[in-house]
From TrEMBL, chain A:
Residue numbers spanned by region Disordered: 145-201
Protein name: ABC-type transport system permease protein
Keywords linked to the UniProt accession: Membrane, Transmembrane, Transmembrane helix
Amino acid composition bias (Low complexity), ranges on this chain: 167-184
Organism for this UniProt entry: Halobacterium salinarum (strain ATCC 33171 / DSM 3754 / JCM 8978 / NBRC 102687 / NCIMB 764 / 91-R6)
Record-annotated membrane-spanning stretches: 26-44, 214-237, 258-279, 285-307, 314-335, 364-386, 417-440, 446-469, 481-507, 527-546, 553-578
TrEMBL record, chain B:
Protein name (database record): ABC-type Na+ efflux pump, permease component
Subcellular location: Membrane
Keyword vocabulary terms for this entry: Membrane, Transmembrane, Transmembrane helix
This protein's GO CC annotations: membrane
Segments passing through the bilayer: 21-47, 170-189, 225-244, 250-274, 286-303, 323-344
Species classification: Archaea, Methanobacteriati, Methanobacteriota, Stenosarchaea group, Halobacteria
Top-rank taxon: Archaea
Domain ABC-2 type transporter transmembrane: 30-306
Major place of residence: membrane
Automatic annotation (TrEMBL), chain C:
SMART domains xref list: AAA
Statement: the UniProt record of this protein carries the keyword Cell division: no
Alphabetized Pfam families for the sequence: ABC_tran
Originating organism: Halobacterium salinarum (Halobacterium halobium)
Protein name stated in the entry: ABC-2 type transport system ATP-binding protein
UniProt xrefs under InterPro entries: AAA+_ATPase (IPR003593), ABC_transporter-like_ATP-bd (IPR003439), P-loop_NTPase (IPR027417)
SUPFAM superfamilies membership: P-loop containing nucleoside triphosphate hydrolases
Span of domain ABC transporter: 2-229
Single Gene Ontology MF annotation: ATP hydrolysis activity
Sequence similarity: Belongs to the ABC transporter superfamily.
Organism lineage string: Archaea, Methanobacteriati, Methanobacteriota, Stenosarchaea group, Halobacteria
Gene3D superfamilies: P-loop containing nucleotide triphosphate hydrolases (3.40.50.300)
Keyword Cell membrane: no
Keyword terms: ATP-binding, Nucleotide-binding, Transport
Length: 579, 349, 287
């Protein structure tokens, strides 16, 4: 790859996009952008409630509950006797015994609490109006005896969390005595949601709910979704009517072309993310953390645009990419302040950067390396099919996928190299499975997770081998199958050993994390510990390779067998390890 | 039979089917719905694991201080909490460190009758949210009791709380978030596909082939639009059916589908108009996303936003305004579609 | 200049090119003819390194096909000439000149010269509005921005109107006169006949015949004789008060002469017919 060529193509891609905007379209963009800029503040200030008026409260105008109903937008006051969900009468409160009736009652109850607080705030005797004042602090607990931390500090003093150096501000108990606690609820609101010390009345205390990270997730991911739309179109346009063919004959490598076409979009995405980072008060670290994610968005879109047969298909591909990657970044980040699992999402680094919590190197690597490597591999696969034979043909997506997977496998040894390269995806998929399953009880989550891991790893070890046999890259013989399978197994083992980053962040501190990433055999000899996984990876990879060499059906059967063997081994190891 | 629009509509649907994109579209919608549901179930279970797992966890709270008896009484009030009294803060702290208790409350009575509760919750544990929720519940009860005791010092009496009946925590989410999402996503995708489809015909110059056949541009637009506008309510009907099978009662299904068809018509007309004017897919698609966002933004400023309309209709709390706005939406749909046909007719000459 | 040895290309189970070998000398114009699907385009694309051969060797100008250094000395004109609609001919050509490392001044000079020779005046309008002939001219100009030694042209004149076809063919001939080595495919034999030094006729991925046009005609062409007699003999057809018999050897002519004499008449005229290139083409390709 030559920087000069890449820059030339990047410059061309940029100017081409700029000149292709005719005046009418450019004006339309400006008009829509201005309109959006005007609408957004209006929407934010009016704050429409999607649940407005969905519960009907039958109440007389002179009842105190009429004021309660008026205070909550979800509640609509109606005359008693009409089809109300909850009816307030002098006798008491009746509610329809339906899901809606119960939900209405529960909403009325919480609205009453809020209403009472508002009324009490006007009382002259605040000590009687708010007779309880709470100050809440968080302190680490060292329940795990194996990693016991000596923590001799007194209550409320500054302590350091075991997971990454977050420092709490010391909070004094008398913080809320003198003045009205509702008005002066210190550290409530957003900082409360982010799990920091707070004090105030009982109802002003909020459990740590990472609402912020949801908002940030959208703020940081939205520009990526817009950029990949334009990028996907640009890549697919090269394939329509063979437009990109002359470029392939020019004295530049495929890598130059792909890098050159991608660079402006990547730079654009980073620029947008930087603007958002500046606006939300996030630091450089946040931009660095989102960069690999941006690359992964682009890489997945690139591969999708190389496979799509039409713009329609491309739309679905980009939506699928958006949804899948947003989920990956989003779900773990929801638990940013609550659980170590959040460390797998780059957005956690963003949240930590905004709240000024420290990020350890291990955390940073864990959250950015897998998407970064995955982006690298996807670009590799896409560039592999960036050639005349694949670009301009109209094959269905699965068939192109097989082409892309088979293309780099020139020798059996390459099968091992590519298995190793797939490891970021394995890691991403497994981390995601952990994120999805960690709320479930251990008795359910660990078996399901072990099954998921067996499927993910066996597919990663064999899918490209299958593709290579299907596309005639390897001779369909038993001996070749064994060689390829062994290479794939060794590749996986080597790459997995390189994956010790998970150990750096205490993810194995979680029961489920340990099951996924550190199934160490207790009491076994070190030699066995090293050799057993190697043998086991080679055996399972060889099983599926032999099937792949035979036929499609045989591959499916052999893969199922390999997954079975894998699962049996995993269960045995976990049972021994966890007792 | 021989209506060219029907032929074209069938071809549009046929291409969606043959490319299996419609399957992909449904999978994407299912994924988004599943994702948002997972999020809510996950978050609710953080606050209240009992709702997710069936077996409620018990939070044990270590209590110290001269007002510990008041606090202990309200904490022990609920089955999901238990109280462990400690003689000193140091002892309680040590117990917390060991994990014997999940939370600490050091309660002291102030001269004015106020109780100061210094609460400590575990940091960075996935039980934190639950622990804080339970502490909050106990201390709120204490607050109400103390207010009742101090009634003589208050000018106004707090309103009595309605009874605490266990309700489905996902109820509101289902109607106000999940359902609107499932209703508007197909409409948005239909508009996007329309823009793609028109831009592609223009870019590949296959539009001229269609026009050589005895078809006018408005007819071509009709053919594609019939298919795509119709597809949106069809998908939503499928989701409604699934929700109904899942035990979620959906009221006014026909009105809901009419609203979806109306929104789809507006978005499809927008997509087609942009593709016709702009010609290139990349720009048309980008502009479409922005315009669609703006349309939803403006609509959410209405007295009842589209999301709210869906929720009210489905949960059976429509007002006269709801029906009026439904009428407005359908009128706007008809108007934008007429506008598109006029634009297509103009582009032809 | 170009050497191709036992070239093969298989797409899945289909063999597009099946063991083709040929050499093209410097300054020579080599034509590939054959029906659609004979493997011409695949052969040309392998020559420029666009498509990886399944087997065989190609060297162009001393480099392996696909080598970056080789690409610098090669100009390729694909069968279709889609351009980027929003670009103008000048901006499009400058971009490619840039990719080939041609400095700005030289590039401008070459671009203007090529467009002048091709008679294209609309140089600053988006090519999206262009006719097929105009886009073809831009595509041809693109193949020349790097002043290549070797030109690979796939059906340069297909689908153009007669006037533009003439311009393109004439221009190709001028390029040949300039000393360029040209490999050229066509299914229209007139173009081949007027430009090429040597041709190969392709059929089912193989060369059915190669050589100069004269060689091919000699080898595959047939000579026939029309013998005119003034009396009716076996197999003769009446023609303008005379009788004509078509035969393909001198022995047959002698036999007719004897038969006519027996009938009391004689041979009044003999005409020799050589088969045209079209006839040879139809014959060789089995059409």
């Amino acid at each position: 790859m030559k920087a000069g060529n890449v820059l030339r193509i990047a410059r061309w891609e940029t100017t081409r996009s700029a000149t292709s905007l005719d005046r009418e379209t450019a004006i339309a963009f400006v008009v829509v952008a201005v309109a959006l800029a005007a609408i957004v503040p209006a929407v934010v200030t009016t704050g429409p409630t999607p649940g407005e008026g969905i519960y009907r409260i039958g109440v007389d105008d002179d009842s105190p509950y009429a004021d309660v109903a008026a205070s909550d937008p979800q509640l609509a006051a109606v005359q008693p006797g009409s089809d109300a969900d909850v009816t307030v009468s002098p006798v008491g409160i009746q509610y329809a015994d339906t899901a809606k009736g119960r939900a209405a009652l529960s909403t009325l109850r919480s609205a009453t609490v809020a209403y009472n607080d508002a009324v009490m705030a006007d009382e002259p005797d605040q000590a009687a109006a708010f007779p309880v004042v709470v100050s809440l602090t968080y302190r680490p607990q060292s329940i795990d005896v194996t990693s016991a931390q000596a923590d001799t500090d007194g209550a409320g003093s500054s302590t350091t969390g075991g997971d990454g150096g977050r420092t709490d501000t010391p909070s004094t108990d008398d913080g809320a005595t003198g003045t009205s606690p509702t008005a002066g609820a210190s550290g409530g609101g957003l900082s409360g949601l982010l799990g920091q010390a707070q004090s105030g009345t009982p109802s002003s205390i909020s459990p740590p709910f990472p609402l912020q990270s949801l908002v940030f997730a959208f703020a940081f991911l939205l520009p990526l979704n817009i950029v990949i739309q334009a990028y996907g179109s640009s890549v697919l346009a090269e394939r329509i009517d063979r437009r990109g063919e002359p470029l392939l004959v020019a004295p530049v490598s495929r890598g130059d072309i792909v890098a050159g076409k991608t660079l402006p979009y990547f730079a654009g995405a980073i620029a947008l993310v930087s603007v958002i980072a500046a606006a939300t008060g996030a630091g450089v670290l946040a931009v660095l953390a989102v960069a690999p994610l941006a690359a992964l968005f682009l890489a997945a879109t690139f591969l999708g645009a190389m496979f799509a047969r039409s713009y329609k298909e491309l739309t679905f591909v980009t939506v699928a990419v958006s949804v899948a990657l947003t989920t990956y970044a989003f779900v773990p980040a929801v638990f940013a302040e609550v659980n170590q699992i959040a460390a797998i999402s780059p957005l956690t680094v963003v949240v930590d950067s905004i709240t000024d919590s420290g990020v350890s190197t291990g955390q940073f690597v864990l959250s950015t390396a897998p998407p970064g490597l995955a982006a690298f591999v996807l670009f590799g696969l896409g560039t592999g099919v960036y050639r005349e034979e694949d670009m301009f043909t109209q094959l269905p997506i699965p068939s192109k996928l097989l082409d892309a997977l088979a293309a780099p496998l020139a020798t059996p040894r390459r099968a091992g190299v590519w298995t190793a390269l797939f490891l970021p995806f394995v890691l991403v998929a497994e981390l995601f499975a952990v994120a999805l399953l960690f709320v479930a009880p251990v008795s359910l989550s660990i078996p399901v997770l072990l099954g998921a891991i067996a499927v993910i790893e066996e597919v990663a070890k064999s899918i490209h081998v299958f593709a290579a046999f299907e596309r005639g890259q390897y001779r369909r013989s038993f001996r070749t199958a064994l060689a390829v399978g062994a290479a794939s197994g060794v590749g996986f083992f080597v790459a997995e050993k390189a994956l010790l980053v998970t150990q750096l962040v205490g993810l194995p501190g979680l029961d489920i994390g340990r099951a996924a990433f550190a199934p160490a055999l207790r009491g076994a000899s070190p030699g066995l510990l090293l050799v057993a996984p190697l043998v086991w990876h080679v055996v399972t990879a060889a099983i599926s390779a032999v099937g792949a060499a035979r036929s499609r059906l045989a591959y499916v059967g052999a893969l199922a067998a390999a997954i079975g063997v894998h699962l049996a081994y995993n269960i045995a190891v976990v049972v021994i390890a966890l007792g | 039979m021989g209506n060219p629009r029907v032929v074209l509509a069938r071809r549009t649907l046929g291409s969606l089917r043959s490319e299996k994109t419609i399957v992909l579209a449904l999978v994407i919608q299912l994924f988004i719905a599943g994702f948002s549901s997972f999020l809510v179930v996950g978050l609710v279970s953080l606050y209240d694991p009992g709702t997710a797992n069936g077996d409620a966890l018990t939070v044990s709270v270590g209590v110290t201080g001269n007002a510990s008896s008041d606090v202990a009484a309200t904490i022990a009030d609920d089955d999901s909490r238990s109280v462990v009294p400690y003689p000193s803060q140091a002892a309680a702290s040590a117990a917390f460190q060991r994990g014997d208790v999940q939370a600490l409350v050091h309660a002291t009575r102030q001269p004015g009758g106020r109780i100061l509760a210094a609460a400590t919750a575990p940091e960075g544990s996935f039980r934190t949210t639950l622990v804080v929720t339970e502490l909050k519940g106990a201390l709120s009860t204490l607050e109400r009791e103390r207010r009742a005791d101090l009634d003589h010092r208050l000018e106004r009496t707090p309103v009595d709380l309605p009874p605490d009946e266990r309700s489905n925590p996902y109820f509101s989410f289902t109607y106000t978030v999940l359902l609107p999402l499932l209703a508007f996503l197909p409409a948005f995708i239909s508009g996007s596909v329309m823009a793609d489809s028109m831009a592609e015909e223009l870019e590949r110059d296959t539009l001229s082939l269609l026009r050589v056949a005895p078809l006018s541009l408005p007819e071509i637009v009709d053919g594609k639009a019939i298919a795509l506008v119709g597809l949106a309510p069809a998908q939503v009907a499928l989701w409604l059916l699934l929700l109904w099978l899942n035990g979620t009662h959906i009221a006014n299904p026909l009105a809901l589908l009419a609203l979806v068809a109306g929104v789809a018509a507006v978005l499809v007309a927008t997509g087609a108009a942009l593709a016709l004017r702009v010609g290139a897919r990349r720009e048309a698609q980008l502009l479409y996303s922005f315009v669609a966002l703006a349309v939803f933004g403006v609509a959410s400023l209405l007295p009842q936003s589209p999301q709210n309309l869906i929720a009210r209709l489905a949960v059976d709390s429509p007002t006269t305004l709801t029906w009026g706005l439904l009428g407005v939406a359908l009128t706007v749909a008809a108007a934008s579609y007429t506008g598109l046909r006029w634009l297509a007719g103009g582009a032809e000459t | 200049m170009i050497s191709v040895q036992r070239l093969e290309k298989r797409y899945g189970g289909v063999t597009a090119v099946d063991g083709v070998s040929f050499d093209v000398g410097a300054g020579e114009v080599f034509g590939l003819v054959g029906p659609n699907g004979a493997g011409k385009t695949s052969t040309l694309k392998m020559l420029c390194g666009l498509v990886e051969p399944s087997a065989g060797d190609i060297t162009v100008n001393g480099f392996d096909a696909g080598d970056t250094a080789m690409r610098r000395t090669l100009g390729f004109l694909p069968e279709e000439s889609p351009l980027y609609d929003e670009m103008t001919p000048r901006s499009y050509l400058r971009f490619f000149a840039d990719l080939y490392d041609v400095d700005r001044a030289t590039a401008n000079e070459r671009i203007e010269a090529a467009l002048d020779r091709l008679d294209l005046d609309a140089r600053d309008r988006p090519v999206g509005d262009f006719s097929k002939g105009m886009t073809r001219k831009v595509a041809i100009a693109r193949s020349l921005v790097n002043d290549p030694d070797v030109l690979v042209y796939d059906e340069p004149a297909s689908g153009l109107d007669p006037l533009t076809t003439n311009t393109v063919i004439e221009f190709t001939r001028e390029l040949a006169a300039d000393g360029k080595t040209i490999v050229f495919s066509a299914h229209d034999l007139h173009h081949v006949e007027s430009v090429c030094d040597r041709v190969a006729i392709m059929r089912d991925g193989q060369f059915a015949a190669t050589g100069t046009l004269a060689d091919i005609r000699d080898e595959h062409g047939e000579v026939s004789y029309r013998v005119f007699t003034d009396v009716d003999v076996d197999d003769a057809r009446p023609s303008n008060g005379r009788y004509v018999t078509t035969v393909d050897s001198m022995a047959d002519v002698d036999a007719i002469r004897a038969a006519a004499a027996d009938a009391g008449g004689g041979v009044v005229d003999i005409r020799t017919d050589e088969s045209t290139l079209e006839d040879v083409f139809l014959d060789v390709t089995g059409a």
